[in-house]
Amino acid sequence: MAKLNYVELPVQSTETTKAFFADAFGWDFADYGPTYAATQTGEGDLGLQGDRAEWTSAPLPVIQVDDLDATLAAVTGAGGTISQPIFAFPGGRRFHFRDPNGNELAAMQPDTHA
């Protein structure tokens, strides 16, 4: 079953934002390059996107699925529009889409070989 597992925030400074969440909530972040960091609880994690070129217009909810290609077909079949085609990232693959209201979300499939 698909589940909401991740929210990605566009941030001005990855380092400042990591420090804020560490101080406020005690969260630890793993760095994935100079502009991206994420918690790794496996429950409902938070990603911090510090690369302005990769920012979404609002927080990005990410839905974990078992079959990314089938989900892409289902999203487009249901009337969603693809805003970023499937791409790989450390830990899996994902794509971004907009629902009929214009909200941007992502669907991701974890790498089962990790």
Q: How much helicity do the residues have? A: 10-25%
Fraction in beta strands: 35-45%
Number of separate strands: 8
Radius of gyration from the CA trace?
A: 14 Å
What's the pLDDT, averaged over the residues? Answer: 92
The structural class is alpha+beta
Distance between the termini: 21 Å
Based on Cα principal axes, name the global outline: globular
- Main beta sheet strand tally, sense and closure: 8 strands, mixed
Record the strand order, biggest sheet.
2-3-4-1-5-8-7-6
Structure annotation, total helices: 2
Give me the strand/helix succession: EHEEEEHEEE
Low-confidence stretches: none
Kindly describe this structure.
The protein has helices at 14-25, 68-77; strands at residues 3-10, 30-31, 36-38, 45-49, 60-64, 81-89, 92-98, 104-110. The chain is an alpha+beta fold and 114 residues long. An 8-stranded mixed beta sheet has the order 2-3-4-1-5-8-7-6, covered by helices on one side. A hairpin with a 6-residue loop joins strand 3 and strand 4. The chain is globular. The model has no long low-confidence stretch (mean pLDDT 92).
Note the main attributes of this structure.
114 residues; alpha+beta; eight-stranded mixed sheet; 8 strands; 40% strand
Question: What's the SSE blueprint?
Answer:
Blueprint: E1 3-10, H1 14-25, E2 30-31, E3 36-38, E4 45-49, E5 60-64, H2 68-77, E6 81-89, E7 92-98, E8 104-110
Parallel strand pairs: 1-4, 5-8
Antiparallel strand pairs: 1-5, 2-3, 3-4, 6-7, 7-8
